[in-house]
Amino acid sequence: MYEAIGLIVDANGINVKAKWGLFSGIMIVPSQIRAARALLGLSQRELAVLAAIGLATIKRIEAAPDIRGTADTFWKIQKALEAAGAEFIPEEGGKGPGVRLKRAQSEQL
Predict the structure, then answer these.
(1) Among the residues of 1-109, which ranges form H helices?
(2) Are 85 and 102 in contact (CB under 8 A)?
(3) 92 strand-pairing partners
(4) Which superfamily does CATH assign the domain made up of 2-108 to?
(5) Does this model's pTM top 0.90?
(6) How big is the CA angle at 7 (ends 86 and 19), to the nearest 5 degrees?
(7) Strand partners, 6
(8) 48, 55 in Cβ contact below 8 A?
(9) CB 75 within 8 A of CB 1
(10) 63: left (phi > 0), else alpha (psi -120 to 50), else beta?
């Protein structure tokens, strides 16, 4: 856990520059947000409602090549997607970050 107000991370989830706030867990990247939404069948508008942030913010974050925004915003997005059933996988051993469903789709029915 570390304190951060704003985070700047490249598309591979490295080179984090923290500025303020409280954040714990892995740092998600825009491609993971898009993938999680697709797995869960959520629109950008639905994610914005679940995360209690603006639709324009979701659009801007998902379109960015790297992470630029507050830790609080990314925390809200991550928590909303996790609550909806996504599990984020950190980058490891030369493999990029990913996302999967917490349960098999057959279990979710």
Answers:
(1) 30-40, 44-51, 55-63, 71-84, 105-108
(2) yes
(3) 95
(4) lambda repressor-like DNA-binding domains (1.10.260.40)
(5) no
(6) 135
(7) 70
(8) yes
(9) no
(10) alpha
Amino acid at 82: E
- C-alpha distances in Å from residue 57, one per residue of 7, 30, 60, 78: 15, 12, 5, 14
Residue 102, both tokens:
């917490």
Which amino acid appears at position 22 of this protein? L
Per-residue pLDDT of the chain (109 residues; tens, 9 = 90+): 333 444 454 444 444 444 434 444 667 999 999 999 999 999 999 999 999 999 999 999 999 987 777 889 999 999 999 999 999 999 889 999 999 999 876 665 4
Helix 55-63, helix 44-51: angle, nearest 10: 120
Domain boundaries along the sequence of the chain? 2-108
